[in-house]
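Researcher: I've got a protein sequence and the SMILES for calcium ion. Could you write out the 3D structure of the bound complex as structure tokens? I'd like something to compare against our soaking experiments later this week.
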Amino acid sequence: MLRYLCALLLLSVFSFHAAAQEPPRDFDDAKDTAVDLWWQIGPLSFYCHCPYRPATAEEKLIRSGNLWVVGSVCGYQARDLITRKGKPNARTMRIEWEHVVPADWIATGFGCQEASRDECRQIPGYEEAEGDLFNLVPAIGELNGDRSARPFGIIPDEPREYGACDFEVVTDGVGPAQRRGMAEPMESIRGDVARVWFYMRDRYGVVVPADMTTMLEGWSAADPVDDAERNRHAVISQEMGWRNPHVAND
Ligand SMILES: [Ca+2]
Ligand SMILES: [Ca+2]
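Model: Sure. Here is the predicted complex with calcium ion in place.
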């Protein structure tokens, strides 16, 4: 009897472990998992390195998220403190889950870039790609919104709009509003960003233009994998069940 119980216990522990290692089904599923993983990785926003913590009940009342950004600690200042409707801009206070490779670009790997998001989600594999944890980072909501689906690039003259946070966005150019212009991340995360793009290209067929590839290769060389990125990769790859070969190829 005891042996049977032990076997049952082992089996249930094993099943739980196996279930915990399944990659997210979709973006909603991924967001819940990402919150847990990033407590282990270190609760810092990706673009500004701002600490964040669980929101208090009072804070939750003035925003619609669960993670509160302590912007003053890292020198982040909001570009727009007040919304167009004259209310406090909740996106300056909360963490959102940002796709390093935006959903619009993931769509290129599934041939649905001209279709609606709902249509893309009908294509097998698209939702898993949208919920891939290697591609998700915590970002201050305002930056997530301003970056939208813009590619990364180098913007002349550092036109800072977020206090001391070294992140710039320009919105002029051609194409759909959410893809126009570009965003420039700080130097110390450019390699991290590049290795996520390469991963999404190789795994899901995301189309990366030749000139962007050249730029990202330069970023990856100038900002090689360091301990922080290795640690983040270890936590995420354990959850996903596979690795990003551009970060760890052993
Ligand atoms: Ca910059
Ligand atoms: Ca780096």
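Model: The mean pLDDT is 91. The longest helix spans residues 2-20.
Researcher: Great, I'll pass this along to the crystallography team.
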